[in-house]
Amino acid sequence: MAGTIFILNGPNLNLLGQREVDVYGATTLGEIEEACRTAAAPLGYAIEFRQSNQEGELVTWIQEAREQAVGLVINAAAYTHTSYAIPDALATFDGAKIEVHLSNIFKREVFRHHSTLSNQVDGVICGLGPKGYVLAIEAIAEIAGS
Ligand code: DQA
């Protein structure tokens, strides 16, 4: 096993499949988790997939990733645009880090155009729907494996 990749999801993403389907699509978070496991297994990585509606819990999980993970994928949802604690926590994580958004945040309201996280990650994927999570895992495998 090449290691564990933490995949952390922020507020309201538990409602994927029911929530603003025109924006986020019909795929549920459970289905995204399954796709992540399917993508990670042949690359030799285990997945720790979590969702929280609370900012502090996401911070605690990033700190946990410091001890347990070689890479981290984060969709911080609305905290992407408001949080300082999440980028501060990401700065303490030395492994590969990718920020993911299902929707193209740059095609949406102006408040979504800025991410407080982006300068703390190796790469950002947005607008590609659930596929973005799979691409993020592949990117982490490349970065972590090199
Ligand atoms: C999101 C984009 C955010 O602006 C929004 O608050 C979300 C989801 C996305 O995946 O497209 O909740 O991170």
How would you sum up this structure, described in words?
- With 146 residues, this protein is an alpha/beta fold.
- It has one domain: Rossmann fold (3-Layer(aba) Sandwich), CATH 3.40.50.
- Helix content is 36%, strand content 20%.
- It contains five helices and five strands.
- The chain has helices spanning 21-24, 29-40, 55-68, 85-91, 131-145, and strands spanning 3-9, 45-51, 71-75, 96-101, 123-126.
- A five-stranded parallel sheet has the order 2-1-3-4-5, sandwiched between helices.
- The two termini are 15 Å apart.
- The mean pLDDT is 97.
- It binds 1,3,4-trihydroxy-5-OXO-cyclohexanecarboxylic acid.
- 1,3,4-trihydroxy-5-OXO-cyclohexanecarboxylic acid binds next to loops.
- 1,3,4-trihydroxy-5-OXO-cyclohexanecarboxylic acid (DQA) binds next to loops.
Attribute tags:
single chain; 146 residues; alpha/beta; Rossmann fold; 5-stranded parallel beta sheet; 5 helices; 36% helix; globular; binds 1,3,4-trihydroxy-5-OXO-cyclohexanecarboxylic acid
